[in-house]
Amino acid sequence: MRFPDLAAWLDWQAKLNPKAVDLGLERVREVWSNLGEPLLQATVITVAGTNGKGSSVAFAEAILQAAGYRTGCYTSPHLLAYNERIRVDQSAVDNDRICEAFERIDNARGDILLTYFEFGTLAALLIFAESRLDAVVLEVGLGGRLDAVNLVDPDVALITGVALDHQEWLGEDREKIGREKAGVLRAGRPAVFAGRDLPASIRAEAERLGTDLQVAGEDYRVERRDEDWDLLSGESISRSLPLPGMRGAVQLDNAAGVLVALDAVAHRLPVDQRAVRAGLLGARVPGRFEIRPGRPTWVLDVAHNPQAAGALSGMLGDFFTRGRRIAVCGMLNDKDAAGVARVLAKRFDAWYLVDLSAEARGMASSELAKRMRTAVAGIPLEIRDDVCDVLAEIRAEATEDDLVVVFGSFLTVGAASRCLDRLGTAPAAA
């Protein structure tokens, strides 16, 4: 084997292709062909969209597992450990199995310069093909049309929504971004758009392909009450569904989209209401409004664009606290930091900005402050180098009534999660 452990493999993969993001399917198609094009032999659900992908994957996985099916799930990025990206029956695949897949991919690639993400995608597909699964849920990493996940033809595609993010690669407006995400649609196969305001580019591509596209607000809708909700989809009505265990009004949109997508493949994967209820209540994704009780109360959320920041703002509006609200934020260079700050500025009494410049695409705290300063004018704003140092500083000074919200990047939230583990603050029980 080329490398003795997973860490060495990942370090090498990060440097193999000089481009961290190198969109296109030619490389993965050729390597997959060299591997013999293993068959997944499972119903495939592909999830694309700007925000809500991780939660949607978790809902689908939890419902299908509760229904008794064997599942494989591929997501990115990871929060704490790389293994989180590849799950079989809701359990992360172990290091040895991932390394074995990497070795086979390395032997099959010849001189093809795969990216870090392409290696991981091919490894997940290899592992799933050999695991005798009933269902595979694949999360698109970036866009859709040219993302490595799009190597696989889905039986149903779910697009959670379209907002501005990754414009450098996907285009500067929602129509262009929508066109990229519409790349996961397939001729004659069902698809769901679970977001608000369907881009015309997605509708046009669905019509061109003959895709049966179910659109939120047009083909199905949600009726919410205080304690439960109904899903009305064509002639099908699901009544008195439990509110999702994950917080936030947006989770109803995600859950509804998943249920409509699952209904589209119900002839292959029927699920009963018991499984639906169990999945809605049980699905969890670390780092999505994850509450860590203690002194003070901590909230971890990977919101990193204005749309996700709006969802976070809404959840904070429903979250009562007697003390101060403190923001801890670190972001990547290609994110709309000013837009995020405009959405969230008034939710906080103080801001701490942390430095991610040591990471690929990470933004220096001084640059983050420059981009955010106008939006948070009049609110105390501090610059710090290290996430853990900031959390320790805040913890030493905060009262039990304060609320600290850590957000802006998977890197920021991942570092904060590890620090809080050391400080002894476990996630709140479901």
Task: Describe it.
There is one protein chain. It is globular and about 55 Å long. Helix 7 (174-181) runs parallel beside helix 8 (200-209). The protein folds into two domains: 6-282, 3-Layer(aba) Sandwich (UDP-N-acetylmuramoyl-L-alanine:D-glutamate ligase); 290-423, Alpha-Beta Complex (Protein-Tyrosine Phosphatase, Chain A), CATH 3.90.190. Strand 9 and strand 10 form a beta hairpin. By secondary structure, it is α/β, with parallel strands linked by helices. The chain is 38% helix and 18% strand. The protein has helices at residues 6-16, 26-34, 53-66, 95-109, 116-129, 167-170, 174-181, 200-209, 250-264, 273-282, 306-317, 337-344, 365-372, 387-397, 410-423, and strands spanning 43-48, 71-74, 86-88, 91-92, 135-139, 156-159, 190-193, 212-215, 220-224, 228-233, 236-242, 290-292, 297-300, 325-329, 350-354, 381-384, 403-407. The strands form three sheets. An eight-stranded mixed beta sheet has the order 4-3-2-5-1-6-7-8, sandwiched between helices. It starts with 5 loop residues before the first helix and ends in a 7-residue tail after the last helix. The chain has 15 helices and 17 strands.
